[in-house]
Amino acid sequence: MWGGCFSSIDCLLLWYRQHDDPLNAVVSGFLTGGILAFRSGPQAAFKNAAIGGVMLCLIEGVTVMISQYSMRMQ
User: Fold this and answer.
1) Quick check: 55 and 14 in contact, CB under 8 A?
2) Low-confidence ranges of the chain (pLDDT < 50)
3) How many folded domains does the chain comprise?
4) Host domain of residue 44
C-alpha cells in the first residue's frame, strides 16, 4: 500500500513539475504518510506525514552524499 501510494505521488509530481530531483521523493513521503494515517485524525496524519517526510529526506540525503563522493573519486 505504501509503495503504490508513494510511487503514484512521485510520478504525479514528476509529471507536474517536469523536474526529477530529491524534492519529489521527500514530498511524496510526506504526503504518503499523511494519506495513510488520514483516518486516525488530523493530528496523527500530520505526525505520520512528518515522519514520512523526514525518513525520505534522510534516504535522499544519503543518496546525494554517496553520489557526490563517487563523483569526486573518479
Assistant:
1) no
2) none
3) 1
4) 2-73
